């Protein structure tokens, strides 16, 4: 049975802490009348009522992207936000099918198009930092190993499939697709940014690292894989399930030379969360900035593809047809 709701004044003052954090740093904090919100919170009689109010304030000041993860949920895998990738999630959709047909693409000798799917990923937020770091490195390495496996066959273009990527930690994703993101390995290459007002925190590629400012949030313990044909044309697949960090990866490709996106509009959470521990052991995911592309453009909303398609089959067909029209593929053909 669920525990009965307790009087709000008998519980830790974590709700006031959350309101302070939101008022100071939430991206859309101007959407809330904070003195009125604090007064309303003070008038609540029970914890369930207070929690509901806090959740509403988080949603309003973060456009639905922020989240309060209760301490009671931290003992469960979903509460820890842990979701580690399986190798089969990285492969092209038809890899395990026996009768998928050539339009979906096979991993066989005849297909000139490489394919990498980048799924949702989040490390265990309650694990020691060394364990969390290893989980991130493992995910990035899995992506690069999949790229290497695909690249064993001569490829003239690549598909990056983000249609099932609803978010998580963007940095292992970006490190994993580094070989496709990079077009100028001899110079620093800006691939995106976090925008907060006039402040920009740049994401860039430099000396084999994916950097936030001058820091590498995730770094492989082995050299990046180098494609047989560097800086190839890339088709990025997006859709309604592409959200948060999935949208950030899509933005990192937006503005890249010889790159085009296909599919439907994304989920509309192209903003960035910061994980903030609270006094009672819970966690606030605080949305504080907008994710931007290589030209520092982004509005925090849905990403529109360059080519809108009606369904998955149409998305894949359009992407493949565009890639096959690119100079490298025409030469290969």
SSE layout:
Blueprint: H1 14-25, H2 34-43, H3 47-62, E1 67-69, E2 113-117, H4 129-150, E3 157-161, H5 170-176, H6 178-181, E4 189-196, E5 199-206, E6 209-212, E7 234-238, H7 245-253, E8 259-263, E9 271-277, E10 283-292, E11 307-308, H8 312-324, H9 327-332
Parallel strand pairs: 2-3, 3-7, 7-8, 8-11
Antiparallel strand pairs: 1-10, 4-5, 4-10, 5-6, 9-10
Keywords:
single chain; about 325 residues; alpha/beta; 2-enoyl-CoA Hydratase, Chain A, domain 1; 2 domains; six-stranded antiparallel β-sheet; five-stranded parallel β-sheet; 11 strands; about 30% helix
CATH topology of the largest domain: 2-enoyl-CoA Hydratase, Chain A, domain 1
Quaternary structure state of the chains depicted: single chain
How many E-type strands? 11
| Total count of helical runs of at least 4 residues | 9
Helix-strand makeup class? alpha/beta
């Amino acid at each position: 049975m669920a525990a009965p709701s307790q009087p709000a004044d008998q519980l830790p003052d974590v709700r006031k802490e959350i309101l302070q954090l939101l008022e100071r740093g939430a991206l859309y904090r101007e959407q809330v009348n904070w003195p009125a919100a604090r007064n309303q919170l003070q008038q609540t009689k029970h914890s369930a009522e207070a929690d509901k109010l806090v959740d509403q304030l988080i949603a309003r000041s973060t456009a639905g992207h922020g989240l309060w993860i209760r301490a009671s949920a931290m003992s469960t895998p979903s509460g820890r936000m842990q979701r580690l990738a399986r190798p089969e999630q990285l492969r092209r959709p038809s890899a395990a099918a026996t009768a998928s047909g050539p339009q979906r693409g096979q991993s066989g000798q005849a297909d000139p198009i490489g394919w990498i799917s980048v799924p949702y990923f989040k490390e265990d937020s309650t694990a020691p930092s060394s364990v969390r770091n290893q989980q991130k490195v493992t995910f990035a390495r899995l992506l690069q190993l999949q790229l290497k496996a695909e690249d064993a066959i001569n490829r003239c273009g690549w598909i990056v499939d983000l249609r099932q990527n609803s978010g998580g930690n963007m940095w292992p994703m970006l490190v994993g697709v580094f070989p496709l993101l990079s077009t100028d390995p001899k110079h620093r290459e800006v691939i995106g940014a976090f925008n907060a007002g006039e402040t920009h925190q740049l994401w860039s590629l430099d000396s084999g690292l994916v950097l936030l400012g001058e820091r590498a949030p995730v770094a492989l313990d082995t050299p990046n894989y180098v494609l047989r044909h560097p800086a190839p044309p890339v088709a990025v697949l997006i859709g309604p399930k592409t959200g948060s960090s999935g949208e950030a990866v899509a933005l990192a490709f937006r503005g890249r030379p010889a790159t085009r996106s296909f599919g439907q509009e994304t989920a509309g959470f192209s903003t960035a969360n910061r994980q903030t521990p609270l006094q009672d052991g819970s966690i606030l995911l605080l949305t504080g900035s907008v994710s931007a592309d290589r030209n520092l453009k982004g509005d925090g909303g849905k990403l529109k593809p360059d080519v809108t398609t009606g369904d998955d089959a149409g998305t894949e067909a359009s992407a493949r047809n565009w890639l096959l029209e690119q100079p490298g593929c025409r030469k290969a053909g």
